[in-house]
Write a structure and sequence with these properties.
The structure is a homodimer. In chain A, about 45% of the residues lie in helices and about 5% in strands. Chain A is mainly α. The first copy, chain A, has a two-stranded antiparallel sheet with strand order 1-2. The longest helix of chain A is centred in the C-terminal third of the chain and has 17 residues. Chain A is elongated and about 55 Å long. The interface between A and B is large, with 68 and 64 residues. The structure holds a DNA duplex.
Chain lengths: ~170, ~170
DNA sequence: AATATATCCTAGTTGTTAGGTCGGATTAAC
DNA sequence: GTTAATCCGACCTAACAACTAGGATATATT
């Protein structure tokens, strides 16, 4: 339950990758897609969100030797900001959408569950807003030096079909 | 993002409804579906999850004047328990599934994002586990007869999140 | 006993969306 | 002027969410 889509997953991984190369030359999506084993054409769609957000999270350089770089220091970018750009406002329920006072459901002045979903929403927001991109990029990286053997063990989210939501 | 499905939404509303009638005669799904304006046939599927869970959250009585009642006092049922039964384990990401240490993705010894999603998962779990069904059922109805702490908190939350994306 | 009212059970259906792919146009370094 | 990259929009498809349908079984009331 409460799953984050691959937009969020891959987008965050792009940002972490860029954070680890902060200060370097622009990093191309080709490099990122190879190093993270993610489809290039799909990453292009995601990075568009990161580039067009206000304020932008990444800045692009076109042409050969082009690529992307972070618009700011990783320490000044919270994961809440990143995830909201990728996935939209945090809203476990339509009546508990972040930021706006949605009067969509006027039936529910008397709705007791709104309180619950607001709590969940705030908990998620608090968790995401309290972690910076710098912190994430600093998580130790063990044994991935040579790259290949470990990377081959990676299973893409789409490859995994869990029986899901029933029982565990 | 991070949306809860109607399974979770309607299921919670069933439980709150039953909590408000705790101690009464069994309450039929027909009554609940009319009072909550939800499709009966669909509720039947959801209540099955609540009945077959281990331990069961509701107990059924068949036949005329039958219906459902809570298996325990509302004060002893956390919303975390309810939501997990309806939606499965809390898992914003497949690598951050609650309860078990899924070694599906061995690549993720070196995965920096797992830390993030685990934090989100724990925040959600904490929020859900800290609210009981009794508390939810006690949220004042229309007209707000008295200023309980719960109501004031509820209003405050709504106010905080109008117009800004910053955290509380 | 007959009827009305319930839960119980298994399938089928339908619209939406997640998660991509594909083809090409534009830009800049060498 | 060739290569390597970003940019852009359209298309595709399997999976799933959110129901609907049709019945079988159980029990209280008449």
């Amino acid at each position: 339950m409460l799953r984050v889509s691959t937009k969020g997953e891959y987008g965050v991984r792009i940002m972490v990758d860029l954070a680890r190369h902060y200060g370097d030359r622009p990093r191309s999506l080709t490099d990122i897609s190879q190093s993270e084993l993610l489809p290039l054409a799909y990453l292009e769609q995601l990075v568009k969100l990161l580039r067009e957000s206000d304020p932008p999270l990444v800045i692009s350089t076109r042409g050969a030797h082009g690529g992307y770089k972070l618009s700011r220091n990783p320490a000044e970018i919270t994961m809440g900001e990143v995830v909201r750009v990728l996935e939209g406002p945090i809203a476990p329920m339509i009546c508990a959408t972040e930021g706006e006072m949605t009067q969509i459901c006027n039936f529910l002045d008397s709705c007791r569950t709104k309180y619950l979903w607001s709590k969940v929403r705030d908990a998620v927001a608090q968790a995401l807003d309290s972690i910076t991109l710098e912190e994430l990029a600093a998580v130790p990286d063990e044994g991935s030096r040579q790259g290949s053997p470990l990377l081959q063990q990676f299973i893409a989210l789409s490859d995994i079909h869990t029986g899901t939501a029933s029982q565990s």
